[in-house]
Write a structure and sequence with these properties.
This protein starts with a helix and ends in a 12-residue tail after the last strand. A hairpin with a 2-residue loop joins strand 4 and strand 5 (116-125). The radius of gyration is 19 Å and the shape is globular. With 237 residues, it is α+β, with helices and mostly antiparallel strands. The chain has helices at residues 2-10, 24-40, 89-92, 96-102, 188-199, 201-209, and strands at 46-57, 65-72, 76-80, 103-113, 116-125, 134-140, 146-151, 157-168, 172-184, 214-225. It has a single domain (2-167, 181-220), classed as outer membrane lipoprotein receptor (LolB), chain A. The chain contains six helices and ten strands.
Length: 237
């Protein structure tokens, strides 16, 4: 079951967007905006935080989870949990510098929302080996945090991540909650039929049993920032 959910959340191969490379002015503007988010997160080298996760997914029953999470730049993550832990690793901590390194950005639109300018960016992977090929990112202009990420629909599926933040140690804006929402589009039934016909009955039943809708809510508390976490903690055991 863990493999099925992980595949739905982050191992879906999204097609590249060749059109994004045709607007150099827009890409330059978007990259400049994304760099502000990188700068805002720049003073955070590592942190330890308590996470509580709740999974509400069709066809899946998972108890609430509690763990300690350790993060160190650029993207090292380690979990310490006494029980079963199932969370989407990609996206649970979002380092804007990783997005800037892996994606080309273009500006889709900008608008005022709740007294602040919000920019909608489209990101297209620079390399074909990147698992998540395309997505939209909403970036706000006050604290330069990412408010929302949404994948471009593929095979009838979409993934949305909504972020809430808190001011930690009167200096760092870090996530207080992230809600991962897996949804289906109008292409759900059509894509299932195509997959079944392509793969045959052997895999058709598996495809139909995969969850299309649901959410994972992760709450963060008790941050400890820049304590100097040793690299050995992240070595595989």
């Amino acid at each position: 079951m863990k493999k099925i959910i992980a595949a739905l959340l982050f191992l879906i191969p999204f097609p590249a967007n060749p059109a994004s490379a045709k607007k150099p002015v827009m890409i330059s503007e978007a990259d400049s905006l994304l760099s502000k988010a990188v700068e805002a997160f720049g003073d955070v080298s590592d942190f330890t935080v308590t996470i509580d996760a709740e999974v509400n997914m069709e066809q899946v029953q998972v108890p609430n989870m509690h763990a300690t999470m350790y993060f160190k730049k650029p993207d090292k993550i380690h979990f310490d949990s006494k029980g079963f832990l199932f969370v989407p690793r990609d996206g649970i901590i979002l380092n804007p510098a990783v997005l800037s390194d892996r994606y080309n950005a273009s500006l889709v639109q900008s608008e005022m929302a709740q007294g602040r300018m919000v920019y909608k960016l489209q990101l297209a992977a620079k390399e074909t080996k990147t698992k998540l090929r395309q997505m939209y990112v909403w970036l706000e202009s006050v604290n330069w945090t990412i408010l929302k990420i949404e994948t471009i629909p593929y095979e009838g599926r979409t993934l949305t991540m909504d972020f809430s933040y808190e001011l930690v140690q009167e200096k760092f804006w870090l996530p207080s909650k992230i809600v991962f929402t897996l949804g289906s589009t109008g292409e759900r039934e059509k894509s299932s039929e195509i997959l079944d016909s392509q793969q045959g009955n052997q895999f058709g039943n598996t495809r139909r049993s995969m969850p299309w809708n649901g959410s994972v809510t992760i709450a963060y508390s008790d941050y400890k920032v820049n304590t100097g976490i040793d690299d050995s903690l992240f070595e595989k055991k």
